[in-house]
Automatic annotation (TrEMBL):
Annotated protein name in UniProt: histidine kinase
Histidine kinase domain boundaries: 1-152
Source organism per UniProt: Mucilaginibacter auburnensis
Amino acid sequence: LALNITRFDIVDLIRDCCDYINYNSEHEFKLMGEEEVMIFADYRRIYQVMINLIGNAVKYSPQSNRVEITIYHDEENVTVSVRDFGIGINPEKLPHLFDRYYRVDAFGHQFSGLGLGLYITAEIIQRHNGKIGVDSNLGAGSNFWFTLPMDDRMVEQ
Ligand code: ATP
Ligand code: MG
């Protein structure tokens, strides 16, 4: 996975993603935290990460149209979290979520997909030397988060 590293504002990227997803629907995306965070990363890959996470938050929330996105940073990392108020995930399934082709109750639910989005998302974040994780409550919602290093020397090795 080759990266094309440039410097850009990840908050701006996230605003663009929300606009794109909302073009034909009416979700309530609430952005919280910082107004601008300049990072060194692969813009298109991080855009893909956000589309995957926000897309999942929308898809797996039939009972809610609210998605909360929080962005903050310290000297070392920027942290982005995407919280939804949807179906949630059984804690037993959490360890498998980032596996290739894995889908919770693949044959039992009404949501279509390939089970590739989170696999690709985790690959992209790991390639940037970041971390990714999730906490979730069945029936209440999920919170997916990732970090990316602020220092370009951590990104390009
Ligand atoms: P696609 O390849 O189109 O993204 P997908 O959405 O099924 O298909 P992933 O994005 O990799 O695949 O997600 C894997 C599985 O994790 C999903 O099938 C779903 O069961 C579960 N999942 C992912 N995000 C959420 C979420 N926000 N809320 C509840 N379940 C989720
Ligand atoms: Mg998906």
